[in-house]
Amino acid sequence: MSVLDNWQQWKEFLGDRLDQGQQQGMNKDTVNHLAYQIGDYLAKQVDPKNEQQRVLSDLWSVANKDEQMAIANVMVRLVENNGTQQ
Fold first, then answer.
1. How many domains, the chain?
2. Structural domain includes residue 86
3. Position 46 in a domain
4. Residue 7 domain-assigned?
5. What is the model's pLDDT at position 65?
6. For position 86, what pLDDT does the model report?
């Protein structure tokens, strides 16, 4: 099973990557920009695997760039302290 198949596993995966980035010294702006790039890639290249991802994909598809940045920033906040390496 892919990490993309399960919403909770996806959030834990993102939380772990966020923790790693912060431990390596990434600042919040860099993290948020990277989250935007990942969101854009996923929206264009990956078929949503669950209902939550479908909602995010649908929102992303109708959002302008500023709104997409806001979605990415909210996702970062959602997964903060959500990783398995706490």
1. 1
2. no
3. yes
4. yes
5. 96
6. 47
The DSSP-derived string for 42-80 is: HHHH----SHHHHHHHHHHHH--HHHHHHHHHHHHHHHT
49 in any annotated domain: yes
Residue-wise over 15-38: b if at least 16 C-beta within 10 A, else e? bbbbbebeeeeeeeeebbebbbee
- For the domain that residue 38 is a member of, what is the CATH number? 1.10.760
- For the chain (length 86 residues), average pLDDT per consecutive 10? 77 86 91 90 89 93 96 91 60
Where in the sequence is the domain holding 57, given as residue range(s)? Answer: 3-79
Tokens 């903060």, residue? 80
64: Cα within 13 Å, side-chain hemisphere: 1
Q: Sign of the CA dihedral 25, 80, 18, 62?
A: negative
